[in-house]
C-alpha cells in the first residue's frame, strides 16, 4: 500500500498553492494531489459559461509568490487558468497530480497514527487505497457535479432550453434569441452582459436586488508600479495597496451602512439610463456586505442596460410556460433560453465521509480551529478563503502555517496533532457568518466557530497575518503526541 506524508485533495487554486508551499518549505516531504476531474484548475476549468471571470483583482487573488503580469486586473477564466497551470509547470507539480482520483472515504487510526484513504479511479472504475500522515483538503466548498436549481412549476412544459451555468453546453446557440437569466449574484451579472452582445435581448430576473459596483478592468496604479519597479516589486506593492483598499471599503460599509448604501445607489444611478427605477432593481433590503458585493468590470452590465440589450425585472416566479416565465405579478417574460443562475450546492470537504477510530465525524459537531483544522480530528487541515476579500489571500497564510506546523512536529518528534476545545460550554455560531443563500441552505451541515481565538474563523487579513504567520504554531488547545 502506497504511503505519503501528505495527500492534498483537489488541484484547484488552493491545492496547487498548497503543493507549491509544501514543496518549497518542506522539500523532503512526499505528497500527491488527488484530482477527481481530468484537468487542473478547479473552478476555472469547470465553469464554461459566457464571460466567466474573477470578481477580485488578480493582484490579491493571485499567489503571493507568483506575480500577476497581465495588464488587466480583473481577468477572464482562460487567463486565470493559464496562470494556475504556469504555477504547476514552474514548480514541477505535474508529476504529483493524479487525475481521475476521487476520494470516497478517509479513516483515521490512532493506533497507526495515519489516515487510510479510499480512492475511486474515475477513468477505470478501480478502487485503490492510500495511506498518509496528513490530509490537506483543498476541494473547495461546493459540489462540482451539480449546481443548485429550485423547483419551478411547469418546468417540463418549456419548449426552449434550460441551462445551469455550472453545466454550460458547448453547443448552445443563443444568437438572436430571447434569454432570461434567473438570479442576481456574481454569475448572473457576468452572464447577462456577455450574452447581450449576441442575443436579441437578455433579461435578468431577480427575486431580490444585489449590491453591484462597477470596477475598472485595468489598475493604472498597479501597471505603473510594475513598469517602474519591475514585476515582482511592483506586484508586492500593488498587493499591499489592494489589501488595504479592500479592508477600507469593507470596514466603511460595515461601520457606515447607510452612507455606503447612498454611495452605491449614487454610482448605480449615474451608470443607468435617465428615469431608470433604481430603487426597484438596485436597492437591496439588506446592508452592504451582509452578502458579497458584485463587481462588474468597466460597468458592462450597466452599459448593456443603457444600450437596450439587457433589462432587469424584480419579481417572483409563478411558473414556467411553453414560451417563457410567468411571474406572480401576472407579467410574462418570453424566452427561447432560460439560464438558472441560482447558485451552488455547498459541500464541505468534497462530501467525503471522515471517520476517526471508527466513529463518523459529524461536521456540525466540530469547531473550526484557526479556520484550518477541526476539533477532535487529528492531522487534517483544510483551505477555506475569505468571503469579504480575495479568496486566495487567506489560502496563502493557511498554507504557510500548515508548513510551519509540520516543521515543528518534525523537530519535536511528534506524529499526531489534534485540536480540542478546552471549554465544552464555549458558545458557538455558524462557521461562516454570511447571508448568501447557498450558505444559509447548508449552515446545519458545516462546522461551527467559537467566540474567541483560536476558535474564531477570521475574515480579516491583518489579524490572520499575526495569527498564522507571526504567532507560534503551538497552542494550549492544540495537542501533540
Describe the structure.
Belongs to the FAD-binding monooxygenase family. One of its GO terms (molecular function) is NADP binding. It comes from Actinoplanes cyaneus. The protein has 481 residues and is of the alpha/beta class. It has helices spanning 13-25, 43-46, 58-61, 77-90, 186-196, 220-229, 231-255, 257-271, 278-281, 300-306, 391-412, 437-442, 461-470; strands at 2-9, 31-34, 97-98, 101-109, 114-121, 127-137, 161-163, 178-182, 201-206, 212-215, 294-297, 310-314, 317-321, 324-327, 332-334, 337-340, 354-356, 359-360, 368-369, 373-374, 380-382, 417-419, 429-430, 448-449, 478-480. The mean pLDDT is 93.
Summarize the structure in short:
By secondary structure, the chain is of the alpha/beta class.
How many individual β-strands?
A: 25
Global outline:
globular
Going by CATH, the architecture of the largest domain would be: 3-Layer(bba) Sandwich
Report the biggest beta sheet as strand number plus sense, adding barrel if it closes.
9 strands, mixed
What assembly state would you assign to the polypeptide chains in this entry?
single chain
Sheet-strand content, in percent, reads 15-25%
CATH superfamily of the largest domain: FAD/NAD(P)-binding domain
Task: Summarize model confidence as the mean pLDDT.
Answer: 93
Figure out the total of helices. 13
- Extract low-pLDDT stretches: none
The structural domain count equals: 2
What is the CATH level 1 assignment of the largest domain? Alpha Beta
Amino acid at each position: 500500500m502506497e504511503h505519503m506524508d501528505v495527500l492534498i485533495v483537489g488541484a484547484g487554486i488552493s491545492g496547487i498553492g498548497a503543493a507549491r508551499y509544501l514543496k518549497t518549505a518542506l522539500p523532503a516531504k512526499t505528497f500527491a494531489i488527488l484530482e477527481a476531474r481530468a484537468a487542473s484548475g478547479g473552478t476555472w476549468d469547470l465553469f464554461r459559461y459566457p464571460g466567466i471571470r474573477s470578481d477580485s483583482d488578480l493582484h490579491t487573488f493571485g499567489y503571493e509568490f507568483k506575480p500577476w503580469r497581465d495588464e488587466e486586473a480583473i481577468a477572464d477564466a482562460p487567463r486565470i487558468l493559464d496562470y494556475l497551470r504556469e504555477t504547476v509547470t514552474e514548480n514541477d507539480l505535474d508529476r504529483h497530480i493524479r487525475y481521475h482520483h476521487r476520494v470516497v472515504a478517509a479513516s483515521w487510526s490512532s493506533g497507526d497514527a495515519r489516515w487510510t484513504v479510499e480512492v475511486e479511479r474515475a477513468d477505470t472504475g478501480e478502487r485503490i487505497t492510500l495511506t498518509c500522515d496528513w490530509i490537506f483538503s483543498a476541494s473547495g466548498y461546493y459540489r462540482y457535479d451539480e449546481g443548485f436549481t429550485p423547483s419551478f412549476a411547469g418546468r417540463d412544459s418549456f419548449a426552449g432550453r434550460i441551462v445551469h451555468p455550472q453545466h454550460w453546453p458547448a453547443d448552445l446557440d443563443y444568437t438572436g434569441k430571447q434569454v432570461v437569466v434567473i438570479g442576481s449574484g456574481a454569475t448572473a451579472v457576468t452572464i447577462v452582459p456577455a450574452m447581450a452582445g449576441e442575443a436579441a435581448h437578455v433579461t435578468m430576473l431577480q427575486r431580490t436586488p444585489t449590491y453591484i459596483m462597477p470596477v475598472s478592468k485595468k489598475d493604472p496604479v498597479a501597471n505603473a508600479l510594475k513598469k517602474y519597479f519591475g514585476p515582482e516589486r511592483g506586484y508586492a506593492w500593488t498587493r499591499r495597496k489592494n489589501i488595504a483598499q479592500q479592508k477600507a471599503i469593507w470596514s466603511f460599509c460595515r461601520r457606515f451602512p447607510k452612507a455606503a448604501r447612498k454611495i452605491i445607489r449614487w454610482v448605480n444611478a449615474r451608470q443607468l439610463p435617465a428615469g431608470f427605477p433604481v430603487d426597484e432593481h438596485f436597492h437591496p433590503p439588506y446592508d452592504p456586505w451582509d452578502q458579497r458585493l458584485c463587481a462588474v468590470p468597466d460597468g458592462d452590465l450597466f452599459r448593456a442596460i443603457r444600450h437596450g440589450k439587457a433589462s432587469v425585472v424584480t419579481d417572483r416566479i409563478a411558473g414556467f410556460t411553453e414560451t417563457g416565465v410567468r411571474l406572480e405579478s401576472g407579467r410574462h417574460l418570453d424566452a427561447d433560453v432560460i439560464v438558472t443562475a441560482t447558485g451552488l450546492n455547498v459541500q464541505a470537504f468534497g462530501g467525503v465521509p471522515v471517520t476517526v477510530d471508527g466513529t463518523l465525524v459529524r461536521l456540525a459537531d466540530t469547531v473550526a480551529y484557526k479556520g484550518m483544522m477541526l476539533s477532535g480530528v487529528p492531522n487534517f487541515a483544510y483551505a477555506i478563503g475569505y468571503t469579504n476579500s480575495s479568496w486566495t489571500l487567506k489560502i496563502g497564510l493557511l498554507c504557510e502555517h500548515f508548513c510551519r506546523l509540520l516543521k515543528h512536529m518534525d523537530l519535536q518528534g511528534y506524529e499526531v496533532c489534534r485540536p480540542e476545545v478546552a471549554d465544552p460550554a464555549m458558545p458557538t455560531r455558524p462557521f461562516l457568518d454570511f447571508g448568501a443563500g447557498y450558505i444559509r441552505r447548508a449552515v446545519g451541515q458545516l462546522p461551527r466557530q467559537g467566540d474567541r481565538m483560536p476558535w474564531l474563523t477570521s475574515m480579516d487579513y491583518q489579524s490572520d497575518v499575526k495569527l498564522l504567520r507571526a504567532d507560534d504554531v503551538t497552542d494550549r488547545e492544540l495537542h501533540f503526541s
